Amino acid sequence: MKTTEFAIIGLGGVGGYFGFKLAQKYTADSAINVTFIAREKTYEIVKENGLTLLSEAHEDPIARPDQIFKTVAELGHTDVFVICVKEYDLENICNQLKDKIKNDTVILPLMNGVDIYERIRKIITNGIVLPSCVYVASHIKEKGIVEHKGNPGKIIAGKDPEHPEFDPQGIVDLFKNASIDIDYKEDSFPAIWSKYFFIASFGLVSARYNKSIGQVNEEEELHQRALAVMQEIQAIAVRKEIDLPEDIIEQTFQKAASFPFQTPTSLQLDVQSGKENTELELFAGAIIAYGKQLGIPVPETTDIYNEIKNGMLV
Ligand SMILES: NC(=O)C1=CN([C@@H]2O[C@H](COP(=O)(O)OP(=O)(O)OC[C@H]3O[C@@H](n4cnc5c(N)ncnc54)[C@H](OP(=O)(O)O)[C@@H]3O)[C@@H](O)[C@H]2O)C=CC1
Ligand SMILES: CC(C)(CO)C(=O)C(=O)O
């Protein structure tokens, strides 16, 4: 039987959650291999101790992959690459990956952002790229240790617009068999935009004030600022003819209310911990650029962007 080779690139909040589930399910299965790519201290710790996931939903907190490498270059034949890095590392990873991609290699980017597919396609022109978005509240506690809170993670993936004939059902089933909630759609872009609606608005306001998703939803001033950012994104989406529901704003506030009250956003954690690189450009920067390009004013997003840049963080 042919072995399916998975490579999970990046063992942070997202890779540490979904990679854990794949590795825990399949290490004893000789037909499916799961390889992790992690760098520096994460590599050392996971190689020595396995990957730890602290999660009420997972009794055994340790998963050991079949293999772990420090770089993509060390990988042999791989069928499915699951990219789980922050947006500022995407081009670097794609440049390393491009020689490993064959026509039937599948790339699943589990990241926030509406332009991830296009950015991958600028570098990797062959293979199958499944445009996706992801919901999960999980973050690095220490290198090699990821903490998951709240609802189980969820992936929404869609057809590669360049390869509508490709049938990914076999791969989708492997995720499902590892108890990963994954929805496969003809067109995942509306779901990707809906996620962006949520994470750009709540991410920016939560990062600016260091407040959880629940607090942003309930505190009047913060709620109004998130609403104003959503209205700006909505104007952009309408102009770009993205097929979003008319009540997307209401749905987004309802979605926020479904998270445990104290859930932080990944942008909040990165901005508030003073990380040198954050996804501020992916959220605010992209909205500002679309606004300029389409002649749509985006004053609230611009203000929050400048406030965060200038260190106004409470
Ligand atoms: N965390 C969450 O709850 C959610 C996050 N997202 C989105 O998912 C994406 C990933 O986020 P998240 O997992 O939180 O990010 P993290 O920062 O937690 O993890 C990214 C990981 O990628 C690793 N990495 C980067 N470059 C390389 C490389 N060249 N080789 C090996 N490893 C590499 C980093 O390594 P190192 O530690 O060494 O820097 C880090 O461990 C983002 O776009 C985010 O917005 C979406 C939904 C939920
Ligand atoms: C809000 C959350 C946790 C939802 O999945 C997220 O996407 C993020 O923090 O980036």
TrEMBL record:
The keyword NADP applies. NCBIfam families: apbA_panE (TIGR00745). It comes from Pedobacter cryoconitis. It catalyses: (R)-pantoate + NADP(+) = 2-dehydropantoate + NADPH + H(+). Gene3D superfamilies: N-(1-d-carboxylethyl)-l-norvaline Dehydrogenase, domain 2, NAD(P)-binding Rossmann-like Domain. GO terms for cellular component: cytoplasm. Residues 7-159 form the Ketopantoate reductase N-terminal domain. GO terms for molecular function: 2-dehydropantoate 2-reductase activity. Keywords: NADP, Oxidoreductase, Pantothenate biosynthesis. This is 2-dehydropantoate 2-reductase. It holds the Pfam family ApbA. Catalyzes the NADPH-dependent reduction of ketopantoate into pantoic acid. GO terms for biological process: pantothenate biosynthetic process. Belongs to the ketopantoate reductase family. Its EC number is 1.1.1.169. The keyword Ribonucleoprotein does not apply. It is an enzyme of class 1 (oxidoreductase). It comes from the Bacteria. Residues 191-309 form the Ketopantoate reductase C-terminal domain. Pathway: Cofactor biosynthesis; (R)-pantothenate biosynthesis; (R)-pantoate from 3-methyl-2-oxobutanoate: step 2/2.
